[in-house]
């Protein structure tokens, strides 16, 4: 294993790519990137590129229809839910959800399993009455709660949770069973595994991790929940307005939506969510095995029973060694491995598009690094 890069930046050819472990914006499937190159030039033989089309023309109608259809197929949802493509990132949802679904006399419950879930809770608190149904901060968010640890208020308007915690590398194995509308942030794992999409009243995901470039948020919302939305919300932040206008109440970000459609078709062509889950489990196992078999050299952040297969956070017993690890990984053409500043260490984000071969290379590097520095 070389300790310095065989290819310096100046020697790199334009088509040479390195392993991208970034948590987001993140890796996209290569066939999708290749297709986008054509579509930027000329979308479906229309003579106009996807970046240049009117969002109301028939080519973009087709983009919306096909993306929505593929999304419905993947999520297994029919008429019960609306599919929307919105803006303002997942953080925008932190505000839109209480604005639409938290009436003044009610309380909304939040399960706090990490930084993003906490931000959602805090934003909810700026807009209405919120209740913390679980707080994992005492153990630095190294696990998620079981159903019996979630303590709901009486009759909450909804319960919000985050299924995969991007920073801490934890996830819910299954959706928490609660007796109120369920709202889930799936930003860092959307369509990485089969999931009970129809069992939720609202599912959302910022696209820039597993679905598309930044600029769009995918939202699946039950019609039952939409019927309860408050009317005193500005149009631009109202779910029913976006649903009624097929996500074209205003000029939508067509490029990330088109990319998302190509990603959905790629997932379907590769075998769907079961196959994504099989691959993701296999990839993550390689890295977790390297951590578990390192004799304590690598320390995982997450409890074993709730390990994320998308974001794998770990460290050594010394920040200096972590720094050295990251420097040498960079020299070995592995980028984006630096852990989030709140917990330090390393984080390997291995979304759907990340190849198993890349995980094998990381494992080889980890083993060699532990051997020479242990
Ligand atoms: C789980 C989760 N939710 C929300 C966000 C915030 O996303 P955005 O930057 O699109 O607002 C992130 C960003 O990393 C995330 O990982």
Q: CATH top level of the largest domain?
A: Alpha Beta
The termini sit apart by 17 Å
Helix content: 25-40%
How many runs of DSSP E, i.e. beta strands? 14
CATH topology of the largest domain: Aspartate Aminotransferase, domain 2
Report the average pLDDT across residues: 96
Total discrete domains: 2
Structural class: alpha/beta
The proportion of strand residues reads: 15-25%
Radius of gyration: 21 Å
Question: What overall geometry do the principal axes of the alpha carbons give?
Answer: globular
Order of helices and strands: EHHEHEHEEEEEEEHHHHEEHEEH
| DSSP helical segment count | 10
Characterize the main sheet.
Answer: 7 strands, mixed
CATH superfamily of the largest domain: Type I PLP-dependent aspartate aminotransferase-like (Major domain)
Low-confidence stretches: none
Side by side, the strands of the main sheet go 2-10-9-8-5-3-4
- Second rung of CATH, namely the architecture of the largest domain: 3-Layer(aba) Sandwich
The distinct ligands, each listed once, are: pyridoxal-5'-phosphate
């Amino acid at each position: 294993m070389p300790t310095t890069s065989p290819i310096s930046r100046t020697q790199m050819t334009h088509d040479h790519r390195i392993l991208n472990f970034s948590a987001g914006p993140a890796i996209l499937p290569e066939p999708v990137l290749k297709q986008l190159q054509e579509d930027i030039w000329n979308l479906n033989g229309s003579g106009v590129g996807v970046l240049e089309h009117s969002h109301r023309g028939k080519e973009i109608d087709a983009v919306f229809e096909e993306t929505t259809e593929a999304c419905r197929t993947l999520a297994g949802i029919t008429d019960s839910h609306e599919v929307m493509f919105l803006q303002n990132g997942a953080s925008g949802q932190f505000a839109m959800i209480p604005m639409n679904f938290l009436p003044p006399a009610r309380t909304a419950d939040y399960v706090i399993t990490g930084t993003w879930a906490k931000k959602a809770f805090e934003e909810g608190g700026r807009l209405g009455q919120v209740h913390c149904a679980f707080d994992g901060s005492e153990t630095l968010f190294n696990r998620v709660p079981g159903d019996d640890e979630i303590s709901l208020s009486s009759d909450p308007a909804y319960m919000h949770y985050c299924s995969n915690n991007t920073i801490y590398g934890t996830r819910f194995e299954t959706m928490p069973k609660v007796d109120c509308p369920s709202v889930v942030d799936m930003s860092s794992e959307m369509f990485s595994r089969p999931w009970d999409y129809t069992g939720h009243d609202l599912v959302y995901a910022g696209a820039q991790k597993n679905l598309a470039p930044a600029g769009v948020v995918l939202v699946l919302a039950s019609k039952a929940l939409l019927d309860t939305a408050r009317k005193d919300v500005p149009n631009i932040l109202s779910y029913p307005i976006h649903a009624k206008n097929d996500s074209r109440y205003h000029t939508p970000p067509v490029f990330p939506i088109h990319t998302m459609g190509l990603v959905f078709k790629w997932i379907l062509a590769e075998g769907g969510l079961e196959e994504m889950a099989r691959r993701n489990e296999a990839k993550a196992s390689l890295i977790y095995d390297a951590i578990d078999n390192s004799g304590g050299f690598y320390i995982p952040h997450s409890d074993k029973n709730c390990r994320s297969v998308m974001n794998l956070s770990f460290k050594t017993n010394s920040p200096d060694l972590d720094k050295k690890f990251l420097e040498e990984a960079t020299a070995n053409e592995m980028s984006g491995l630096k852990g989030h500043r709140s917990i330090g260490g390393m984080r390997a984000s291995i979304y759907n598009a990340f190849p198993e071969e890349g995980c094998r290379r990381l494992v080889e590097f980890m083993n060699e690094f532990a051997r020479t520095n242990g």
